[in-house]
Amino acid sequence: MSRTLFPHSTVSPLYASGQANIIFQAHPPFHSPYDGSNSMQARGEYKTSLVGTLFLGAQPHRKTRYNTDLILDIESAGGRGISQALGLAGFTNLDVVRNPNLGSKPYIARVQVHQTIGFTNEMVEAERTPFSLATQVPARRLELRLGKMSLPDVFDQNAVGSDSHFQFTNWTVDNNGAWDYAADTRGYTYAFVAEYQSPAWGARYATALMPTIANGINLDWALRRANGQNAEVEWHRGLVSHWLPRERKGMVRVLSFVNHADMGRYREAVQAYLAGKDVRPDIDAHHRQSSVKYGFGINTEQEITSDLRAFARWGWNEGQHESWAYTEVDSTVAAGADLTGMRWSRPRDKVGVAFVTNGIKQDHQNYLKYGGLGFLLGDGNLTYGRENILETYYQAALARGLSMTLGVQYIEHPGYNRDRGPVLVPSVRTHVEF
Predict the structure, then answer these.
(1) Mapping DSSP to helix (H, G, I), strand (E, B) and coil, where does residue 26 land?
(2) What is the C-alpha to C-alpha distance for residues 43 and 24, in angstroms, rounded to an integer?
(3) Count of alpha carbons within 13 Å of 383, Cβ hemisphere only?
């Protein structure tokens, strides 16, 4: 693995690696005639986050067609995000924990069994990663995962926009913002995933535990009462692959999800407030067990030349029920690209640019306008406008396994509020892989 400080064996049944990701972000003062308890702070501020992960794995046997991986990851997430990760739907730092009171004490991020069942003796090359140790896998296969994981480890993956350690850092660029995927505050859940892969296409399904409260650290283990259902189909050709040389890789993925949890409806909370039953809209006072929230997404990537790649995402959810686990987005569109430094004799460097526009439905807008609080948003008032974010970065490879990235994000209408902003957020990221 060339990106690590030290080389790793590709044949050992044991695996050990780690990473540390440090992100410094700041912003100057910006226009804000008012703010609320969940607002992005208008005064200038700066914050630093640090995530360290130890990846451990083992292959108890060496049957390539029926490979088994045992995965254990231990993680520590410290530091802070600007404004305590409040006030933005497309928050600027994916590494930030949304509850700073959890602290940086190490915790188990992933513990799972990954089983491959091959349907053919034809083998294809595979990259060894912390989540899949085999370097050869059957061309047609079933992969089963059971245990603790982050659903974006498997779903909504994108070669250009999914990795906050080497690519973009905004929540709604690296993930589909409208996908309210099952997760605790740190982004993890217990789940079962079944995935089929063939040379031409693949499909995956997961059922996962939901948090007991919105953005909560505790998970509800009663699957009959609360669960997250996720399905994704992918085609191993891009939308424009037939116009490009055959060696140019592309991918199209279609995602859907259905969540069952003790959620409230924005409209009911607003109606209770307008009727004088509540002093302000309070969605926590109007929860209904086994409420259903659903949505869809499309994700595509395309290699255009040997050094240029592009990607795009679209996402939508029904928006009537409250945002529960990821972020407060009901619709999103994102597009971007990255370019390696081969053209200026820096082949391990990379520059990227992406634009994302996020929105919420009318009931969600009214809830925030009348003073309601979500787990991320709440300015006390709202003059609605889509939250538009432009992010760009330059990543410089300093040494084997060590890189530094300079980035900047320009945010228009933070928290969907035309009365506030715009905001400019520069960043410096240092990443070590060992």
Answers:
(1) strand
(2) 17
(3) 10
Pairwise CA distance, residues 73 & 230, whole Å: 23
Please choose, from the candidates 246, 206, 15, the residue with its C-alpha nearest in 3D space to the C-alpha of residue 128: 15
pLDDT in tens, 59-117: 998 788 999 999 999 999 988 899 999 999 999 999 997 666 677 899 999 999 999 99
Beta bridge partners of 71: 57, 112
Query: Is the Cβ–Cβ distance between 134 and 128 less than 8 Å?
Result: yes
| Pair 387, 364: CB distance under 8 Å | no
Q: What is the pTM of this model?
A: 0.94
Superfamily of domain 14-433: Porin (2.40.160.10)
Residue 173, beta-bridge partner list: none
Q: Which amino acid is at 400?
A: R
Please return the burial class of 69, using the count of CB atoms within 10 Å of its CB with bins 0-12, 13-18 and 19+: buried
For residue 1, list its beta bridge partners.
none
Query: Are 113 and 57 contacting, i.e. CB atoms less than 8 angstroms apart?
Result: no
Token representation of residue 22: 């440090």
Task: Tokens for 94, please give them.
Answer: 């994916």
The secondary structure element, H or E, covering residue 233 is strand 227-235
Q: Of 30, 22, 21, 29, give the one whose Cα is nearest residue 47.
A: 22
Q: Answer positive or negative: Cα dihedral of 135, 139, 143, 148.
A: positive
Residue 113: both structure tokens together? 């069994």
Place of tokens 């933070």: 414
